[in-house]
Design brief:
Blueprint: E1 15-20, H1 30-38, E2 41-48, H2 50-53, H3 60-78, E3 85-88, H4 91-102, E4 106-110, H5 115-130, E5 134-138, H6 160-167, H7 210-213, H8 218-230, H9 236-239, H10 252-256, H11 262-271, H12 283-304, H13 329-336, H14 342-354, H15 359-372, H16 377-387, H17 393-404, H18 419-426, H19 431-436, H20 445-448, H21 456-461, H22 477-491
Parallel strand pairs: 1-2, 1-4, 2-3, 4-5
Helix pairs in contact: 6-12, 12-17, 14-15, 15-17, 16-17
C-alpha cells in the first residue's frame, strides 16, 4: 500500500493491527507482545465473521460466552489506555478497511488450527504481504503445534499414550508476561460497532443459568486455575469421575476462548512444585496435565485429518447402519433430558442450564446416543456445538468419535455403558441426579438410577408417576445393546481381509 493512500494523520507513527480471535487475553499473548515490541501504535480489533467460519460458526452458548469475554477484554484494554475495535463481516474486507483508515503497516494475530481457518489465514497472509503489509501469526493456543509433532515414522500419532509420552520429552516455553502498564494508541481510533450490535446474546432466556456458574474473561480464568491448582488438583485423579463433586478444573471454555493459555496452566502447576522440587507435584497433577495433553492431541488429529468433523476417521464406520428417527422423537428426548435414564437426563439438563457437562457424564450421554439410540455421533456433536460454552471443533470431534468408536484411540463400539450401572458407580448417593432432576429428589438412592424398578408404593410416596412426572425408559437396555452389537457386526471387516 502506498503512503499516499494513507490518511495524513496516520503518517506520524507506524501502527499494527492486533487481530483478536480465540486469544482473548493480554498475558502470554505472543501477537500482542510482538506488536508492542515492534513499536508504534497498537490497534486491537475483533471481527465477527460468521461467513468465514462456515458451518462451524459459534453456536448459541459460545456466542453468550463470547459477548462476556469481549466485554472483559475491552475493559482490560481500556485500563491500559487502549480499546477494542469491533467489526462484523468478511475478515479480509474489514482488515483492509482498517489498514486504510488507520494507516497500519502490519497485522499480527495468533494462529487457529481448524482446517478452513488455516486456509483462510494463509490466503490473508499472502495477500497482505504482497501488498506490503507485514502479516505475521504466532502460537498462543498450544504447547506444541500439530506440524511439530510426529512419530518415528514421521506420521501423526493416532494413539494418545505414545503421543503424550513423546510430548513430555519436549520443552514447554514459559508464558510471556505483559509488563507494560499502557501501550501506544493510534492518533485517531477507527469506527467501531458497539458490542451489543453483534447480537451475540440469546433472545430466549435459556442461558439465564450460565451466569450462576461462569465468570468469562481473563480474570475469571486466572481465578479458576489458581483455585483448582491450590485445591482440587491434588485429588483430581480420584475425584474427577464423580459429577456431584467439585473435582475438575472447568477450564475448558477459558482455554477455548484463549482467556488463558496452556503454557500458563503448565506454569501454574509447575509453581506448585517449587517446595518439593518434584514435577508434577502429585498424581492428580500428572493426570490433569494429561487432560491438557488430550486437548493438544485433539488439535493434532483435526490438523492432520481435516475431514473428521463430518466423517469418521475409521472408514469402515462410514457404512454403519444408524437407526432411523424420522420425526426426531428419540433425538429430542435425549436433548431435553427425557430418556427415562436418570444419569443421562441429569447430564443433558445440566448442559442446558449451565452450558457445560461433567466429562464422565459426557461419555455416558454420548454412549447412550450412539449405542442405545443408535443415532449418529454427528447429531450429538451438532447439539453440543450449539449448547456447550466450551464448544471446540477439535475437542468436540475427538470426544464424539471416541464415543462412537470411529476415531483415533477411541473406545471400542462394543464397549457399551450401562447407564444404570454408571449412575450407581459414579453417583451412588444420587446427589447429581437429584440436583438436576428434582422430580426424582425424594426417591430412595437404591431406586434412583432405575425408577421403573421401584415398587409402586415407593414411587407413590416419592410423588412419581412414571410416564407422567418422569418418563419411562425410551429404550430397554439389553435390547438396545443387542441391536448395537448387531449393527457393529454388519460393518466388520470380513475374515481374512486386510485391516
Amino acid at each position: 500500500m502506498e503512503d499516499a493512500a494513507r490518511p495524513p494523520w496516520a503518517l506520524t507513527m507506524k501502527s499494527t493491527l492486533l487481530w483478536f480471535r480465540q486469544d482473548l487475553r493480554l498475558q502470554d499473548n505472543p501477537a500482542l507482545a510482538a506488536a508492542i515490541a515492534r513499536g508504534g501504535a497498537v490497534v486491537p480489533v475483533f471481527i465477527l465473521d460468521d461467513e468465514g467460519e462456515g458451518r462451524w460458526r459459534p453456536g448459541g452458548a459460545s456466542r453468550w460466552w463470547l459477548h462476556q469475554s469481549l466485554t472483559s477484554l475491552d475493559a482490560s484494554l481500556r485500563s491500559r489506555g487502549s480499546r477494542l475495535v469491533i467489526a462484523r463481516g468478511s475478515s479480509e474486507a474489514v482488515l483492509q478497511t482498517l489498514v486504510e483508515s488507520t494507516g497500519s503497516d502490519a497485522i499480527y494475530w495468533n494462529r487457529r488450527y481448524e482446517p478452513a481457518i488455516i486456509a483462510r489465514d494463509a490466503g490473508l497472509k499472502k495477500s497482505f504481504n504482497a501488498a506490503g503489509i507485514e502479516a505475521k501469526s504466532f502460537n498462543a493456543a498450544l504447547l506444541n503445534e500439530p506440524h511439530t509433532v510426529s512419530n518415528k515414522q514421521g506420521n501423526p500419532f493416532q494413539v494418545f499414550t505414545p503421543y503424550w509420552r513423546h510430548c513430555l520429552t519436549l520443552p514447554v516455553e514459559a508464558p510471556t508476561k505483559l509488563i507494560h502498564a499502557r501501550f501506544a494508541a493510534p492518533s485517531r481510533w477507527p469506527e467501531s460497532l458497539a458490542l451489543e450490535e453483534l447480537g451475540l446474546l440469546p433472545t430466549r432466556p435459556w442461558a439465564a443459568g450460565f451466569g450462576e456458574v461462569w465468570t468469562p474473561g481473563e480474570a475469571g480464568a486466572a481465578k479458576r486455575v489458581k483455585s483448582f491448582v491450590a485445591g482440587a488438583m491434588e485429588s483430581y485423579s480420584d475425584k474427577r469421575n464423580f459429577p456431584a463433586v467439585d473435582g475438575t478444573s472447568m477450564l475448558s471454555p477459558h482455554l477455548h476462548f484463549g482467556e488463558i493459555g496452556p503454557r500458563q496452566v503448565w506454569a501454574a502447576v509447575q509453581a506448585e512444585s517449587r517446595d518439593s522440587g518434584v514435577f508434577p507435584p502429585s498424581k492428580g497433577a500428572g493426570v490433569f496435565l494429561s487432560e491438557v495433553g488430550w486437548r493438544e492431541f485433539a488439535h493434532q488429529l483435526l490438523f492432520h485429518f481435516n475431514h473428521t468433523p463430518e466423517r469418521p476417521l475409521r472408514e469402515d464406520f462410514a457404512r454403519f447402519p444408524w437407526a432411523r428417527d424420522p420425526h426426531g422423537t428419540m433425538l429430542r428426548a435425549w436433548q431435553k433430558g427425557r430418556t427415562g435414564y436418570p444419569i443421562v437426563d441429569a447430564g443433558m439438563r445440566q448442559l442446558w442450564h449451565t452450558g457445560w457437562m461433567h466429562n464422565r457424564v459426557r461419555m455416558i450421554v454420548g454412549s447412550f446416543l450412539v449405542k442405545h439410540l443408535r443415532l449418529s455421533w454427528t447429531a450429538g456433536a451438532a447439539w453440543f456445538w450449539d449448547t456447550l460454552v466450551d464448544a471446540d471443533l477439535a475437542s468436540n470431534t475427538l470426544g464424539w468419535q471416541w464415543s462412537a468408536g470411529c476415531g483415533a484411540d477411541a473406545a471400542p463400539y462394543f464397549r457399551i455403558f450401562a447407564p444404570v450401572l454408571q449412575g450407581l458407580k459414579f453417583d451412588s448417593e444420587g446427589s447429581y441426579v437429584r440436583r438436576w432432576i428434582p422430580e426424582l429428589a425424594h426417591l430412595p438412592s437404591e431406586h434412583l438410577h432405575a425408577p421403573w424398578e421401584a415398587p409402586p408404593g415407593v414411587l407413590a410416596k416419592a410423588g412419581i408417576r412414571l410416564g407422567e412426572t418422569y418418563p419411562s425408559p425410551i429404550v430397554e437396555h439389553t435390547a438396545a445393546r443387542n441391536a448395537a452389537l448387531a449393527a457393529l457386526k454388519s460393518i466388520r471387516t470380513p475374515a481374512g481381509s486386510a485391516e
